[in-house]
Write a structure and sequence with these properties.
The complex is a heterodimer. By secondary structure, chain A is α+β, with helices and mostly antiparallel strands. In chain A, a hairpin with a 4-residue loop joins strand 1 and strand 2. Chain A starts with a helix and ends in a 10-residue tail after the last helix. Classes of the chains: A alpha+beta, B alpha/beta.
Chain lengths: ~55, ~750
């Protein structure tokens, strides 16, 4: 009965995990990053494959 | 007549003139002027002034100290007065530091990590747990003590005010940073962890288990990253032993099956050993025709197995042994990765900060290790989660794994496929000239390997015969706030260079001071690192010997952050924007490298230049500079300074150009460097593009690089890949519920879906 209840709400309040490289290593979820690094991650732009030089 | 004085905390104590004279004499000694009778004369005059001033009241300690300063100057002891002022300031700082320490501990104790940036300073420590908090409290106490008691005042000021950053400052008096652990040497004859003796391992499973234990044990002796430079070469020994054991078993089983008898195991092992002695070859993964023929002939003779059957029998035993060894190797690698993501070290608050380097061992055993560690990384943890540790580093080398036809080319391709999914491995490029210069074929210790965020150790001015990666590491490092120097120089390039030279000299002195503390430790202070011979030449020392001389194999590194912002201050542009700025950037970094080289020769110590990994520092320097200079556009108007020599993360630039512009700095930053680029989209669907970027890095002479791409995971349905707002597998948004029917359908489609327990 309890199990069914849990399954009935599977996913409630559960977010996605987002793994990113911090300097040379990975950090499991970004919750534990400090404020400066969170900001740096937010600002990162994707780099295109073609040269603009 | 003064009878008593009032101390700072309000207590009234007896007045003693001798105490004043003693303090004055101490300042005179520091200033190298005056003597005891001068001190007594000054103390007398201090007393007279105070008596005049406080006829009807009890004097305060601060009043007496002011009088001492004045009287020292009146008597012409200006240098002593300066020393006295410095001494007073230090005491004041010590008192303030105690108050600050208590406030810090208060924050660690009461505030949740989510609302305390300080508690998230190191992303690997969970500041909400008991052991995490204990570590942070200990660290705060050590910092406080080190600043007041161990640093010279000028170093303390530079550190406190943000001119420099002394990394791992809490460990200042305790240990060194990191080491490349040569596991081949360690496993030979077994080792002791300090809690028990471990015999030489006898198969790949125990090799892998002990590999993890070695990283964990050494992590308790050092504060930085622990690394294995020769993971493939080291583990290959374990594969060799497992294959031999399995080959004996499988051949015995085949003989037993053929004869329909039991108990032939020992006889067959004896026969294999005899054949090995006769042929001078071992039963190993690489089949030898000579050995196989000899074994077949022996079996025919001993058990009367006809020649036409025995060939098949031997071949099948070999195939089965190969398959079994391969499976065991995979399980061993899987166990290794699981261990390193779960076992705790450093007061139980963090997993070891571990790295493994591999890719160049082209023996069949080494290849089996490389393949299976990559497959284990690809598989992820129990629910398919991406492993955070160890950091995997694939060593790229022409003639070994870079080009089609190279023996490990297939493994290089596999590494790209895995890294496109899991972000690891990173790549170290042995063909880049500054790495190639050390490379000697057949001597893996000459292959550059990395540890921690990016640390690299190769050159050795202390012992030029041992320019190797193994058994060495960084001793300590301190970084310079480059943008600050530029801000202090206006736009005056010459002034900037002068200030930079001064700062380099200050940091070098501080590193030498720290070395002096480290050098006075004994082997027994590092029971694993030195006691078990992990560190180069430490096996030549006894337990009570000083580690001074062997530590000289390590590096003292000067780091920097914010080259881009520095160029912006000095010239208005950064090195991503113009070729001129690239020249200017290279000039600045070359200046720092030349200083390090010169200092190395001067002291016969390995001073090296580090492209600082600026995890916590990026914000620290910036906040201090905002406070000091206000917000300046393009310099400190964001929340962080740019890492070392990187092109700013927010600047639009192609992958090719970013690599091309950053590569020359790799050659200069010999203490370690890394470049990464950000790829868009799901790279697992475009491994060719991923590989192309790795090849650009190789050809541009990058030293160490990696490719970033989003790796997201939905813990509910287990999907790993890019997740925008909606999970592509189960269709839910963050926090949403998946209906029961949908789960059942998904489980049919994806049997590997995690069994969700409801509580995570």
């Amino acid at each position: 009965m309890i199990k069914e209840n849990i399954e009935a709400k599977l996913g409630q309040g559960i977010g996605f995990e987002r793994i990113r490289r911090i300097t040379g290593y990975l950090v499991g979820t970004m919750d534990k990053w400090n404020d400066a690094k969170r900001a740096e991650e937010r600002d990162r732009v994707k780099h295109g494959m073609t040269s603009n030089a | 007549m003064i009878q008593s004085i009032i101390k700072r905390d309000g207590r009234v104590v007896l007045y003693e003139q001798s105490k004043i004279a003693k303090a004055i004499l101490r300042s005179m000694e520091a200033a190298r002027e005056g003597d005891a009778s001068d001190a007594a004369r000054v103390a007398n005059d201090v007393q007279t002034t105070i008596e005049d001033k406080c006829r009807n009241s009890v004097p305060q300690i601060e009043e007496i100290q002011d009088a001492v300063e004045n009287q020292l100057m009146n008597h012409g002891f200006n240098e002593s007065a300066k020393q006295y002022i410095l001494y007073r300031a230090n005491r004041t700082r010590a008192r303030e530091s105690n108050t600050r320490l208590m406030k810090t501990i208060d924050e660690i104790t009461k505030v949740d990590a989510e609302s305390s940036d300080m508690k998230r300073d190191n992303a690997n420590i969970d500041g909400n747990t008991a052991m995490g908090s204990m570590l942070q409290i200990g660290s705060a106490g050590a910092r406080s003590y080190n600043e007041v008691y161990l640093l010279r005042p000028e170093h303390a000021r530079a550190y406190r005010e943000g001119d420099i950053h002394i990394h791992d400052f809490d460990f200042y008096s305790l240990t060194t940073t990191c080491t490349q652990i040569d596991i081949e040497k360690l496993f030979h004859n077994g080792f002791s962890t300090g809690h028990g003796y471990v015999r030489e391992p006898q198969g790949i499973q125990s090799y892998a288990a002990l590999g993890a234990i070695a990283l964990q044990a050494n992590q308790n002796d050092q504060h930085g990253g622990q690394s294995i430079p020769n993971f493939d070469y080291g583990m290959a020994e374990g594969v060799k032993k497992t294959f031999h054991k399995t080959y004996c078993q499988k051949l015995a089983e085949a003989v037993e099956d053929y004869l329909d008898e039991d108990d032939k195991y020992e006889a067959v092992v004896a026969l294999i050993e005899a054949t090995e002695r006769e042929t001078g070859e071992r039963a190993q993964l690489k089949a030898s025709e000579k050995f196989e023929k000899a074994i077949a002939a022996q079996l025919t003779e001993e058990y009367k197995i006809p020649a036409e059957n025995v060939v098949h029998l031997v071949k099948r035993a070999r195939t089965r042994a190969e398959q079994r060894t391969d499976r065991e190797a995979f399980q061993a690698m899987e166990g290794f990765v699981h261990n390193l993501n779960t076992m705790h070290s450093r007061a139980g608050a963090q997993t070891p900060f571990s790295s493994i380097n591999y890719g160049t061992d082209a023996s069949p055993e080494g290849r089996m290790v490389i393949k299976n560690i990559l497959l284990a990384l690809d598989a992820g943890l129990g629910h398919g989660e991406t492993c955070i540790f160890p950091i995997h580093i694939f060593k790229v080398k022409e003639g070994v794994n870079y080009n089609e036809g190279d023996p490990n080319y297939d493994l290089f391709k596999l590494s790209c496929k895995v890294s496109a999914k899991r972000l690891f491995p990173n790549y170290v490029f042995l063909d880049s000239p500054f790495n190639l210069q050390y490379y000697v074929p057949g001597r893996p210790e000459t292959e550059v390997a990395t540890m921690g965020c990016r640390t690299r150790v190769m050159a050795n001015v202390y012992d030029p015969d041992q320019q190797i990666a193994y058994s060495r590491g960084n001793l300590s490092f301190t970084s310079i706030n480059l943008p600050r120097l530029a801000l202090e120089s206006g736009q005056d390039e010459k002034l900037f260079c002068e200030k930079l030279d001064g700062m380099l000299e200050l940091v070098a002195q501080q590193l030498l001071d720290r070395f002096e503390i480290q050098a006075q430790k004994h082997v027994y202070n590092y029971p694993f690192l030195m006691g078990q011979g992990i560190w180069l030449d430490s096996e030549k020392l006894g337990p009570y010997d000083e580690v001074r001389d062997v530590l000289r194999h390590g590096t003292l590194s000067i780091g920097f952050i914010g080259l881009a912002e520095t160029l912006n201050v000095l010239y208005g542009h950064h090195h991503g924007e113009s070729q001129d700025m690239q020249h200017k950037g290279l000039e600045i970094v070359t200046r720092m490298r030349e200083f390090c080289d010169q200092k190395s020769q001067e002291c016969k110590m390995n001073f090296t230049l580090l492209a600082t990994p600026a995890e916590g520092l990026a914000g620290r320097f910036l906040r201090m500079d905002q406070k000091r200079y206000g917000k300046i556009e393009g310099v400190n108007d964001r929340e962080y300074y740019t890492n070392s020599f990187h092109i700013p993360v927010w600047y639009n630039i192609s992958i090719y150009d970013k690599i091309r512009l950053e590569a020359p700095y790799h050659a200069l930053c010999n203490a370690g460097h890394i470049s990464y680029v950000e790829l868009d989209g799901d790279t697992t669907k475009n491994v060719e593009a991923f590989e192309a970027v790795v090849r650009w890095m190789h050809d541009a002479h990058i030293g160490y690089g990696s490719i970033n791409h989003p790796v997201d995971r939905d813990p509910i349905c287990g999907y790993v890949g890019v997740i925008g707002d909606v999970c592509p597998r189960c269709g839910r948004r963050e926090g949403e519920i998946i209906p029961q029917e949908k789960i059942s359908d998904l489980k049919k489609l994806y049997p590997e879906m995690p069994a969700f327990q409801g509580i995570e």
